[in-house]
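Work Package 4 report. The design task specified in the project plan requires that, given a folded chain encoded as structure tokens, an amino acid be chosen for each position. We show below one input record used in the internal validation round.
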């Protein structure tokens, strides 16, 4: 039986059967992952050597993720977007959701566009992401001025009759 509590899984050894167990190990950011499999042949009880082997395989997967993260040339920071009124947020042309929100981006300049449905002028700003920092981008969307039209069906000259 496998039970989950928070980020931890609990496996009762007496419930483990022979078969292939696939593990997906992911870092906290969800950017790096490693998939590994362990084939278990169980006859009677599970020897502790198999538990040790499985733990070792998972440790190797975790080590690969840590190594990949250390050598990752990309550096990350965050963009925090706030607008009045709340609006749809696009970063570099990709929809990220509604403001207010914070999301992680690679180092460098990014275009942040705030768009609200009918009735508001959209707003576009540049955001410079600095690794390990949060860049705040604020925008006030202005209402499109309302235009009043007066439509009249009255004519100043008399209507002419049209004969078929």
């Amino acid at each position: 039986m496998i039970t989950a509590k928070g980020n931890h899984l609990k496996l009762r050894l007496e419930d483990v059967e022979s078969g292939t167990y696939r593990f997906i190990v992911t870092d906290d950011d969800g950017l790096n992952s490693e998939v590994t499999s362990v084939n278990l042949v169980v006859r009677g009880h599970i020897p502790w050597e198999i538990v040790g082997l499985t733990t070792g395989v998972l440790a190797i997967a975790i080590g690969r993720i840590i190594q990949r993260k250390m050598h990752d040339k990309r550096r990350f920071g965050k963009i925090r977007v706030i607008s009045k009124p709340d609006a749809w947020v696009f970063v570099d042309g990709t929809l990220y959701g509604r403001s207010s929100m914070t999301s992680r981006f690679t180092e460098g300049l990014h275009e942040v566009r705030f768009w609200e449905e009918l009735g508001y002028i959209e707003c576009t700003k540049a955001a410079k992401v600095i690794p390990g920092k949060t860049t705040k981008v604020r925008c006030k969307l202005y209402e499109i001025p309302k235009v009043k039209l007066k439509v009249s069906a009255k004519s100043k000259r008399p209507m002419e009759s049209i004969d078929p």
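Residues 76-140 form one domain. Validation will be extended to a larger panel in the next phase.
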